[in-house]
Amino acid sequence: MDASHPLTTAELAQRLGLELRGDPAVRLRGVGSLEGAGPDELAFLSSPQYRARLAATRAGAVLLREEDAAGHVGTVILARDPYAAYARAAALFHPRAVARPGIHPAAVVHPEAEIDPAAEIGPLACIGARSRVAAGAIVGAGCVIGEDCEVGRDCELVARVTLVTRVRLGARVRIHPGAVLGADGFGLAMDGGRWLNVPQLGGVRIGDDCEIGANTTIDRGAIDDTVLEEDVRLDNLIQIAHNVHVGAHTAMAGCVGVAGSARIGRYCMIAGAAGVAGHLEICDHVTVTAMSMVSQSIREPGEYSSGISVMRSRDWRRNAARLRQLDGFARRVIALEREQE
Amino acid sequence: MDASHPLTTAELAQRLGLELRGDPAVRLRGVGSLEGAGPDELAFLSSPQYRARLAATRAGAVLLREEDAAGHVGTVILARDPYAAYARAAALFHPRAVARPGIHPAAVVHPEAEIDPAAEIGPLACIGARSRVAAGAIVGAGCVIGEDCEVGRDCELVARVTLVTRVRLGARVRIHPGAVLGADGFGLAMDGGRWLNVPQLGGVRIGDDCEIGANTTIDRGAIDDTVLEEDVRLDNLIQIAHNVHVGAHTAMAGCVGVAGSARIGRYCMIAGAAGVAGHLEICDHVTVTAMSMVSQSIREPGEYSSGISVMRSRDWRRNAARLRQLDGFARRVIALEREQE
Amino acid sequence: MDASHPLTTAELAQRLGLELRGDPAVRLRGVGSLEGAGPDELAFLSSPQYRARLAATRAGAVLLREEDAAGHVGTVILARDPYAAYARAAALFHPRAVARPGIHPAAVVHPEAEIDPAAEIGPLACIGARSRVAAGAIVGAGCVIGEDCEVGRDCELVARVTLVTRVRLGARVRIHPGAVLGADGFGLAMDGGRWLNVPQLGGVRIGDDCEIGANTTIDRGAIDDTVLEEDVRLDNLIQIAHNVHVGAHTAMAGCVGVAGSARIGRYCMIAGAAGVAGHLEICDHVTVTAMSMVSQSIREPGEYSSGISVMRSRDWRRNAARLRQLDGFARRVIALEREQE
């Protein structure tokens, strides 16, 4: 993967603050996998299970743990966490997009919007009244920002992002295409056989360094705000309902749904397609595995599950049929035990 | 939450048709929660479990049930359903957006489209041939309306909504950003080892007063239309496949999926991330709880479930392993019973 | 359903290469269902269970199996697979959209983009540097194509599709509104208590004849590409994570999620809302039923399941409570067996 910022192995090790072993003058132009990297690319070995690939690699240098370096003759950079070191190295070769200041002539900016001269507003973007975009921020092609929103310093709205109303982004927030922040929360009251809308008067607050995936939705609050603290990472197609509060450094994988007013702690990991019911609390440092359902508060850190893995359908159907009679069978076991006493 | 329409407590009670107790001259400017509302705001108490908050509230007036008003010294408005009354009150303070008639110069309207002079077409919206937009309707920024669509009176397409083709909206339909109505149904036929597309020739019909959430998708029908009757409420990230029929006043929470040709009754409630298989019927007044799967018709009103709540992963894994052997264990129970006879 | 290409029954049978029985001169203008079709429309009977509708149909001709034609007096066209024949017939009456060459004046095309003169670029579309659009391709209204993308011959991006960067589409690929291809994969490394982004340097490669549904997301790879081979069919609201590889002719229904680096074979069918974990393999010809979770590799063709169908909530709750104790009950059954020996 060619990059615009070539570095020698010595420069790279120094920039990463890590120890180099081998040739300090290898010129690296980018990163690659152990199998695919060429002599001007950096690779990494994060798990001993891939050590066989190390012998065969053509990479100019490899990031690895000291214990995995033994016996390898090529140039290496030693790291306690090679994957994190790789992430930092790759970011040196491929830095984040930098704003090209200015408003594209095909953008539509409301006269009451405030755009910092050091912000970039892309083609066919639209920015509403009383919204502000700070210095260094990028509002990509086709984004729609409604009224009373704030885009913080160095944010990147990649393209076609929508901030509906009263959405405030901290600094360095990245949002991927199709994401919708600040749509009406789903607040309904039944009244005489018809639904009444409950006006959604809150907003959305997103902390510094959050990332929000493609086509993810985060509704605005009913009265108070929906909140993501700093460094929250959301993958694609996630639904965050109104008045949810997500603690700092929590990450959620694709297709997760979080219902209204749930409060999720810091450093949680919610795996793909898991669901979190409304009006409950999950404490810090909780992991929920894929396709699991959290319907009561979790008050102790740890890993929680309720997903079921597939088996042959004909076998599964027999088990699923028994599951529908499970309480009866449990009672029969209890009865058998009584008779045996 | 400041609003543009201040009202006195007496005016408000009169507009709601409810009984006021206390000071008729409190000037209210908006609504808030029991904890957060100030002296010029209205709060509500919908459940006795929050009565402790009532004593401490600074709200100018509180909507509540008569039985919860006993002993409270502040100004109250009595309602049998305080949440519904709150919804109506909040809508008085914060009325829905009203169309600002006209076509934004940065919109692209096909010469064969018909836009009522009392409709609002926002910036960077695009409207195709033979589509019509009625009086009072708002087509927000970045919306794309294809050919042969109809947007009824006082509809609101908030922003970046897509109506692909042959989509007809009744009156007062609200659609949130990223929603896609009228995309091709997923109709395929295998032919000589390759997929053939089955042309999707139907449309989508949406009844009056429906609401459709952000990034929700509703496909058009194969031959006949996909139909939502009046007052159907869909949250975000819902998939409605081709030829589905949803009865009036039914509500679905986020991440629900409904497969092709399913027929769902009136006044149903489908909770988050539940799934409904194709070619089946669900009768009126059915509730399906979160993450449940409906794979056969439901012919009696009531509440149905199949979701499983999380437990500690190490405990869950043991149970899930037994679940894979459940039929065997059931047979062993039966054998034990036989031996005991 | 009226079409622009009327055909006689004789012409139609000849175009389809099928045998006609009855009147060769019926003028057909389109297709319909057995119940809804009129005398100038073609219907089809694909299953004997609908034979009762055959007697009552007003359709000008019916596609059916020879064994279902017995006793029917109307004009019929015989097909071994009437549904596939219907798909081909409907495509004759309603051919796919054809590009109207040219770039709409309200589109924004980067000077370094290459647009074939025989391609159609719709209003408010935006195409970035070094991206190419081939002859016959349609880039619909509001699409955003970033940098270094390729749109192959006769592709159709219906409207508001986003190709972020390094996305290459083969020929005849159709993408529905709201789909996002080539967004950053969800690659994170924890470093000193904060998340680090792992730059996503790969792209997305989509084979010929693929179809991608509304609001579906396909992330670009971390180092190598995310790949769909030819004729893959994805429904709406599907998440395909980075470095997933999907084999030719595989189809996935709505709301499926596939985690990173999963490798799915050819001719697989993944039903609605199923989930596939990362870093595993599914061989060719595997069917996964709705709402099932694949968390280990599948090495033999066949049908796999883990979804559970609803029952009355009160009954389900009793069973679900027992499920949480299942390992204990299984041990009690084993103990009972031991005592009986």
From TrEMBL, chains A, B, C:
Annotated protein name in UniProt: UDP-3-O-acylglucosamine N-acyltransferase
Catalyzed reactions: a UDP-3-O-[(3R)-3-hydroxyacyl]-alpha-D-glucosamine + a (3R)-hydroxyacyl-[ACP] = a UDP-2-N,3-O-bis[(3R)-3-hydroxyacyl]-alpha-D-glucosamine + holo-[ACP] + H(+)
Keyword check for Repeat: yes
InterPro entries (UniProt xref): LpxD, Trimer_LpxA-like_sf, UDP_GlcNAc_AcTrfase_non-rep
Biological or metabolic pathway of the protein: Bacterial outer membrane biogenesis; LPS lipid A biosynthesis
Any one GO CC term of the record: membrane
GN (gene name): lpxD
Keywords in alphabetical order: Acyltransferase, Lipid A biosynthesis, Lipid biosynthesis, Lipid metabolism, Repeat, Transferase
Pfam family, one: LpxD
Organism of origin: Luteimonas salinisoli
Phylogenetic lineage: Bacteria, Pseudomonadati, Pseudomonadota, Gammaproteobacteria, Lysobacterales
Active site residues of this protein: H242
Keyword Acetylation: no
NCBIfam families named in the record: lipid_A_lpxD, PRK00892.1
Subunit: Homotrimer.
EC number: 2.3.1.191
Every UDP-3-O-[3-hydroxymyristoyl] glucosamine N-acyltransferase non-repeat region domain range: 27-92
Family in the record: Belongs to the transferase hexapeptide repeat family. LpxD subfamily.
Function: Catalyzes the N-acylation of UDP-3-O-acylglucosamine using 3-hydroxyacyl-ACP as the acyl donor. Is involved in the biosynthesis of lipid A, a phosphorylated glycolipid that anchors the lipopolysaccharide to the outer membrane of the cell.
One Gene Ontology biological process: lipid A biosynthetic process
A molecular-function term among this protein's GO annotations: UDP-3-O-[(3R)-3-hydroxyacyl]-glucosamine N-acyltransferase activity
